[in-house]
Design goal:
This protein has 128 residues and is mainly alpha-helical. The chain has five helices and three strands, in the order H-H-E-H-H-E-E-H. The protein is globular.
Length: 128
């Protein structure tokens, strides 16, 4: 019984983290309605958040799919995916096969969960 409750709490926490990631992505994209796109060039961060959300939904994305979702050019996508792979944050070979499914490494997942957890904690302070 306690195990099921712990699993349920972990799932709700994971759902809250993925919802925080989705909210960040939506808010970041809404900036484009207000200001020129060239002011916002954080492709690797967008890629990591997109992979985090996809993973939480049980989806696997390729570099080509991420590029389409983010409206990112293929050369920019390839360059950043190579960097994210070299730094150990993304697993997959987007450089030679843009259709290969990609996933976040355990290191990236831990870092994003930590960041998103702190975002949720700080947002609670704003509500109280």
């Amino acid at each position: 019984m306690a195990r099921r409750q712990a699993d349920g709490a972990a799932a709700r926490h994971g759902d809250r983290l993925s919802e925080a990631a989705r909210t960040i992505l939506v808010n970041r994209r809404s900036r484009l309605d207000l200001l020129p796109a060239e002011l916002f060039g954080e492709w690797p961060w967008e890629m990591l958040l997109t992979l985090f959300v996809a993973d939480s939904e049980g989806r696997r994305l390729s570099a080509r799919m991420i590029a389409a979702e983010l409206a990112c050019g293929p050369l920019t996508m390839t360059r950043w995916m190579q960097h994210l792979t070299r730094t150990g944050l993304v697993i997959g070979d987007a450089a030679t096969d843009p259709d290969e499914p990609l996933t976040l490494s355990p290191t990236a997942i831990t870092a994003l969960e930590s960041y998103l957890g702190s975002v949720l904690a700080s947002s609670q302070l704003l509500v109280e």
